[in-house]
Amino acid sequence: MNMVGPGLLIISHHIKIMINKNDNVTLVDALDKVLEKGAVINGDIMIRVADVDLVYLGLRLILTSISKAEELSGKNFSNPDKEFTPDDIEYIEKLQREIRRAEENIPKLIDLGSPQKTEQGLAQLVLTLVELIRKLMEKEAFRRVKRGTLSKAEIQKLGLSLKAVKKKIKEVQAIFGIEDEELNLDLGPLGNLM
Amino acid sequence: MAEELIYLYCIREKSKNPSFSTKGIDGKGEVFNLPYRELEVVVSKVFSDEFGSEEIQKKAQEDLSWIKEKALAHEKVIEEAMRKDDEVLSLIPMRFGTIFKERRTLEETVNKDYSKIKEILDRIQGKQEWSVKVYLKDREKLEQVIKEKNEAIKEKEKEIASLPEGMAFFMEEELKEVICKETDRELKNIVDVLFEGLKKKTADSIRNKILEKELTGRSEPMVLNAAYLIAEEKIEDFKKEIENLNQKMQTEGFCLEYGGPWPAYNFTSY
User: How far apart are CA B249 and CA B269, in angstroms?
Assistant: First the structure.
């Protein structure tokens, strides 16, 4: 404990706001300072820690949006004046039930506490890809809504569908204990997936 | 046969503090002072089978735990060299891994840079380095604060509340993005003002790069990583100011932390 000065000082001065007094934080501080900063004098031997290169996984995704395809084919499948059909109403009600159910489930699942770690890794990867597809669909939906070619019923259905998928993903996240920010992949030089 | 080398930790003003309880970076060698005119050069002996040029490059690239352990040992020696009872001595910490093949080349280097070294020690005399780190603990809280100040956002929320759920979804998502951008903008502003405000009562300051969560091991993101060089008599005021700011900014979701005195890593490079 008396290894790192600031740690020692924190205790002796009872500085309350230094919430994290554990060695971890001071270790990081020490590493950051010792390795990165400090005076550089011409020694005969210098350790160059910065030489340690990280090997990154490279991954490329080629994605074509439906909107683009639609534009290219010159087709427009929608009609703004279309009314709600009984099928539409049933579908909307089903989606609303799904959303409510998932919403109720999330806090319960979070309360359960210890998520199964073993399956978490795989679930995280699968969910990340689902989330990617969801985001692409959502962007596409936004473009269609903005273009004004969708009927009210269609917008309503589309919005509810997207919301249902979103809530469902949240629910699965809660089951496996996966945080929002974990739904991503580090693609190294390409940056993050999302 | 392993060759003897000299590992350099720091250069400090004369201390009348001749002995060290901390062992050297290899865990074995004694740490000692090499007196040089008005300075003390703090060193220990190491051997080429562990700290030779090639061995060290290899370890630095292959063995992260070795670096961790040795970097901490390096820091520990400097911490001891910096303190004499309750006093904090002026000292120039060296970067990890500064090694000389013989005492003569080390002395030549110190001799060549003597006036520069003295200049730095004089500049930091009677001052201490303290770090200030700010974390955004609760982004939702900050968003809430920003939302309440923004009439346009409140108006939009009302409009959304009157729409059917599916149609509202699109506007909700759009609004979320607006709030997110507004929060980022405001966050940058708050942090800038905070850094500049604290700077006023200090002798020097630097804004270091933000450390990633993987490094800090904390779930909340770091939003400011600053270091200040502060005159000894102003340190208590400085701490009080941060504690007050922390109190105030907690309600906006922030968490301020300070630490020190550090060896003046950020204010002694030349």
Answer: 33
Task: Please tell me whether residues A92 and A185 are part of one structural domain.
Answer: yes
**A104-118 pLDDT, tens per residue?**
777 766 655 555 555
Query: Which chain A residues are closer than 8 Å to B82 by Cβ?
Result: 5
| Closest CA in chain B for residue A3 | B76
B190: Cβ contacts below 8 Å, ≥ 6 apart: B249, B252, B254
Please tell me whether residues A132 and A37 are part of one structural domain: no
Q: Is the Cβ of A178 closer than 8 Å to some Cβ of chain B? A: no
Q: Which residue of A has its CA nearest to B220?
A: A181
Residue B91's closest CA among B136, B132, B42?
A: B42
Task: Look at the block and give the residue holding tokens 């903005």.
Answer: A146
Residue % of chain B over a pLDDT of 70: 98
SS3 content of chain B, % helix, strand, coil (to 5): 50, 25, 25
User: Per the structure, how many domains does chain A have?
Assistant: 2
DSSP letter (8 states) at residue B263 = P
Whether A98 and A162 map to the same domain: the answer is: yes
Residues A30, A116 within the same domain? no
B269 interaction partners in chain A (CB closer than 8 Å): 37-40
How confident is the model over B128-154, as pLDDT tens digits?
Answer: 999 999 999 999 999 999 999 899 999
Q: ipTM higher than 0.85? A: no
* Run of H or E residues at A55: none
Question: Is the Cα torsion angle A32, A36, A41, A47 positive or negative in sign?
Answer: positive
The pTM of this model reads 0.71
CB atoms closer than 10 angstroms to residue B152: 10
Locate B125 and state its tokens. Answer: 């005399």
